[in-house]
Amino acid sequence: QVQFVESGGGLVQPGGSLRLSCAASGLIFRIYTMGWYRQAPGKERELVATITDKSNTNYTDSVKGRFTISRDNAKNAVYLQMNSLKPEDTAVYYCNARYYSTWLYDHWGQGTQVTVSS
Predict the structure, then answer these.
(1) Distance of alpha carbon 9 from alpha carbon 93, whole angstroms
(2) pLDDT value of position 24
(3) Selection from 24, 22, 45 nearest residue 92 by Cα
(4) How many CA atoms are closer than 13 Å to the CA of 40, on its beta-carbon side?
(5) What is each CA distance from 78 to 1, 86, 88, 115, in whole angstroms?
(6) Is residue 33 within 8 Å of residue 50, measured between CB atoms?
(7) Element (H, E) at 101
(8) Are strands 77-82 and 18-25 parallel, antiparallel or unpaired?
(9) Strands 112-116 and 10-12, bridge-based pairing
(10) Cα separations (Å) of 95 from 20, 102, 104?
(11) Which residues does 83 contact at the CB level (< 8 Å), separation at least 6?
(12) So what's the pLDDT on residue 52?
């Protein structure tokens, strides 16, 4: 059974930083594309950043230059370093693992709240 342990969320002032962590188990972590998504109240879930098995990264435009996604295959973990946080970054952040072979393997964490407010 795939499980995630997400941590690092919390309350931070505008301009501050947070680092989200997601530790995965129950899957062959190194072959998965890992991602962070977020969902703000009243809005749809949106992609924040992804990192492939070859560590190629992709970011949504609104976080480019501020957020950095990384992975540690030895620890089965993915991270999201968030700098220069803005109130509009407030959302529940979800860890995702995705692998497509014959079928799509798509797994989600439980989410961690990030609130950016003064």
Answers:
(1) 8
(2) 96
(3) 45
(4) 10
(5) 18, 22, 23, 20
(6) yes
(7) none
(8) antiparallel
(9) parallel
(10) 9, 23, 16
(11) 17, 66, 67, 68
(12) 97
pLDDT tens digits, 49-108: 999 999 999 999 999 999 999 999 999 999 999 999 999 999 999 999 999 998 899 999
Sheet containing 67-72: give its strands across.
3-7, 18-25, 77-82, 67-72
Residue with tokens 């709240």: 113
Rounded Cα distance between 61 and 49, Å, is 10
Indicate the pLDDT class of residue 41, thresholds 50, 70 and 90: very high
Amino acid at 107: H
Q: pLDDT tens for residues 1-18?
A: 999 999 999 999 999 999
CA distance 64 to 105: 27
Strand partners, 36: 49, 95
Which residue type does 44 have? E
Distance CA 32, CA 41 (A): 28
DSSP structure class, residue 29: G
